[in-house]
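Service request form, structural biology core

Requester: graduate student, group of Dr. S.
Request type: structure prediction, single chain
Budget code: on file
Notes: please return the result as structure tokens.

Sequence provided:
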Amino acid sequence: MAYAESKTIEIDKIPVIDVSQLRSGNPETALAVALEIRQAAEDVGFFYISNHGIAEAVIKQAYSASKGFFNLPKKLKDSVKINANHHGYLSVGEAKMEQAERVDLKESFVWGLDLPDDHPSVTKENPFLGRNQWPDEMPEFKQAVYPFFEAGLQCGRDMMRAFALGMELAEDSFLKATDEPIARSSIIHYPPQSADLGVEQFGVAPHTDYGCLTLLWQDQVGGLEVQTREGEWVTAHPIENTLVVNVGDLLMRWTNEGFKSTPHRVVNSKGQERYSMVIAWDPNFDTVVDPSVVCQNGAQPLYSPVNCGDYVLSRFDSSFSYRQ
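Core staff response, request fulfilled:
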């Protein structure tokens, strides 16, 4: 048997954009970067960013804590099993991408904005806000991984501002309500994948991301693959000191398909443990995603307005077994 086929491409074929100027306070240089981002989002749908604002020390401590958590006995990991707020541990077999033949060969831990149970915004109507679960056996764990989430939220805001600037919109067009975002962060462990499992087995099966924007840090093992506009699967090499940026389906709607969400998957064929860390960036639950905001010169919206939280939740319900 074998792994799903893909083509190895040269690293220089992948757009890598230095986004430091987005934080420079200089409108001209920020616009130049925003236009570069727009081109990558329109042409490819995924790209890498360097000088993204998440400190190397923050990434290193979160990565170290990730390995420590996944090395815990399963009984201890299950003590923080995923809850109704989509916070906690998902074991192998609890995630299956829409239309996939098999469950994903991965385990993960998910958290979000840290709000107390008695916070007025923590309600059953908004299941993404609520209590995070932190393992008692690792009292240092929260302090090690939460800064990655906080820095990722700011990086996501920078990117959403750049998307607006690049489309010649007011820079806050996609940032009207982000004080209590339903963004999630996750750490993911992919065990080595045997070729004997065949071409239909994936660490993560082919899919597009549900929400607005995904920021991905990956270790040097590799295994991420993306589908080109021509339908060919190609390698998305690990590149030091960068994040992979994926446009999600919700941002594709919001930009009236100006930006494209790109199918991607993971095949861990190197015979090594693979780790990644993700920020799934979305605004507040009640944000109305209305593509008319980008329509100019008589263009018509391709989609009706949709509530951000309702849309993301509907996609969750079809991908995670604990939601059934």
